[in-house]
Specification:
single chain; 13 helices; eight-stranded antiparallel β-sheet; 436 residues; alpha+beta; FAD-bd_PCMH-like_sf; oxidoreductase; FAD-binding oxidoreductase; Alpha-Beta Plaits; 2 domains; FAD binding; Uridine Diphospho-n-acetylenolpyruvylglucosamine Reductase, domain 3; 21 strands; flavoprotein
Length: 436
């Protein structure tokens, strides 16, 4: 297998790496790499931080390992290689009456990446996290050892792999239990929300399987936390057509997301939904993958990139989350991208992010002032008994993350058994000192 030197980065483009990459196309190629020159794996590089980077070392690009290995049309169980993209699964199987149980806001992430971060979606309150729908996973560990884990077999290894940021072996393939769908459409109800308290009340009382809220991160006073709630359910009657995404051809200058510009945009965006609300039907992908409407949208933040702060806090810590939203609004630093969701208790792994409560995700252009603000928000999250998302965090210390994830030592022990020489350790694992 040929190794090629390359520069690469996560989606946030703040952390970067330089090293050798290999791109195997067949299982036999990957097996030889893991036997002779084992290294951590990466996919479409949609994690926002340094979780996929191995600066100065080697990494395995899994994007050519993208075969559908089997599919049972009666049960909806599909077996795929790790490099298959989630959007491709939806495109292929929704017309057949099946779709991935859990998807994030973009269709580009791979199945391997979805497992590594135990991702969640707009239906977490109803169906939990991605790893809860993985019936088995096959790993190639350093030295070439091939191991299969499931909820009933090698259970500790399975739980260390779901959300385990790639430290228990390179994912070769996985079996997924998909969910049935009556068609390729979604009926979406949009509601204009006046403030934070109203938002939480609507989220708590929603009876839809999918819900997500956009928050105006610049609104203050009586308008604090205003936004738009989207509730949706699967339906029939829509032809799933993939429209072209708009490109962002250049890195925008810093003033493009200045505070006055963001305030004006957010005010106009809030009013796009009538005060009485509205309901419409759209293709599934158009609703669940809103980030894919703008290609290379990370370039909006310029060459310096961006940070995303994403936390989850328990239900009874809602006042702290409201304070977090207020701190952001008064900072003048937020971008137009700010999302709030209601989460259920579902999580599959020792380092899985979800807990029952509310999750807030918001982007900030990478600036020194934003770094200081995010550290303040991290402290507030700890105070609330919440967590930061390892798929997004690029700034936290090891002490902060360890305080949020009480099973991290059990996870580290499983990672050490799978990878005793530490060849799978990535930049984020080093930054957080998760493995010694």
């Amino acid at each position: 297998m040929q190794w090629k030197t390359a520069d690469y980065a996560g989606w946030g483009r703040v952390h970067k790496a330089h090293g050798e990459l290999a791109r195997p196309e067949r299982a036999a190629d990957l097996a030889r790499i893991m036997e002779d020159t084992p290294a951590p794996a990466l996919g479409m590089r949609r994690s926002y931080n340094d979780s996929l980077l191995n600066d100065g070392g080697r990494a395995i690009d899994m994007t050519r390992m993208d075969k559908i290995l089997s599919f049972d049309a009666a049960t909806g169980v599909v077996e795929v290689e790790a490099g298959v993209q989630l959007g491709e699964l939806l495109r292929l199987f929704a017309p057949k009456g099946w779709l991935p149980a859990v998807v994030p806001g973009t269709g580009f992430p791979t199945v391997g990446g979805a497992i590594a971060h135990d991702i969640h979606g707009k239906n977490h309150h109803a169906l939990g996290s991605f790893g809860q729908h993985v019936t088995s996973v096959t790993l190639l560990q350093p030295g070439g050892k091939r191991v299969t884990a499931s909820p009933g077999r090698n259970k500790a290894l399975f739980r260390a792999t779901m959300g385990g940021i790639g430290q228990t072996g390179v994912i070769l393939s996985a079996k997924l239990q998909m969910i049935s769908t009556p068609g390729t459409g979604m009926r979406v109800k949009e509601t204009r929300v006046g403030d934070f308290d109203e938002f939480l009340d609507l989220l708590d009382n929603s009876r839809f399987d999918y819900n997500v809220g956009w928050i105006d991160g610049t609104a203050k006073g009586s308008n604090l936390g205003r936004g738009i709630l989207e509730e949706a359910e699967l339906t029939t009657g829509v032809e799933a057509r993939k429209g072209p995404s708009l490109p962002v051809p250049i890195d925008l200058p810093g003033f493009a997301l200045s505070a006055p510009t963001v305030r004006l945009f957010n005010a106009a965006y809030w009013r796009k939904v009538p005060a009485r609300g509205r309901t419409h039907v759209m293709p599934i992908a158009s609703h669940v993958f809103p980030l894919d409407k703008l290609h290379d949208w990370n370039r909006l933040y310029g060459k310096r990139g961006f940070h995303q702060f994403q936390c989850v806090v328990p239900v009874d810590a809602a006042p702290v989350l409201k304070d977090i939203v207020g701190r952001i609004a008064h900072s003048g630093l937020c971008s137009p991208l700010a999302v709030i969701k209601r989460m259920g208790p579902g999580r599959a792994g020792m380092l899985s992010f979800p807990m029952e409560g509310y999750t807030l995700a918001i982007d900030f252009p990478a600036r020194d002032k934003a770094v200081r603000l995010i550290h303040e928000l991290e402290a507030m999250t700890i105070e609330a008994g919440g967590r930061l998302y390892l798929g997004k965090d690029a700034l936290a210390t090891g002490d902060t993350i360890k305080a949020m994830y009480p099973e991290w030592q059990d996870w580290a022990a499983e990672a050490a058994r799978a990878d005793p020489d530490g060849v799978l350790i990535t930049d984020m694992v080093r930054r957080l000192e998760l493995r010694g």
